[in-house]
Amino acid sequence: MTLASQECEACKAGAPKVSDDELNAFMKQLPDWTPVARDGVLQLERVFKFKNFKQAWAFGNKVAELAEAEFHHPGILMEWGQVTVTWWTHAIGGLHKNDFVMAAKTDTLL
Question: How far apart are the first and last CA of the chain?
């Protein structure tokens, strides 16, 4: 089953973060995404490029609608010609499987 075809699971504080093995396996399915650490919190990030701000804005709105539908919300930075999307699970201060599912679903919005 692909990550994009899965649904987010309910996740609360104390839920397990992904293991190093899971991280490596999930990253093989998401080659355009990069794990980044910010203030000790591992996050998953990708920069999407567009021809202008209007296209970036439309994509950012699609990401926001997806996030609300799944009730899992990323960081979204819209700039002229690009949108940076950053997924992580706030409740656990790091990466959960849900973040990889949402990254894969984000890729389908292109």
Answer: 21
Q: Looking at the domain assignment, is residue 55 inside a domain?
A: yes
Name residue 37's beta-bridge partners. Answer: 42
Q: What is the model's pTM?
A: 0.96
Mean pLDDT for the chain overall: 96
- Compute the distance between CA of residue 29 and CA of residue 6 in angstroms, rounded to an integer: 13
Q: Note down the domain range covering 56.
A: 41-110
Indicate which CATH number applies to the domain containing 68.
Answer: 3.30.1360.20
82 within domain boundaries: yes
DSSP letters spanning 21-57? HHHHHHHHH-TT-EEEEETTEEEEEEEEE-SSHHHHH
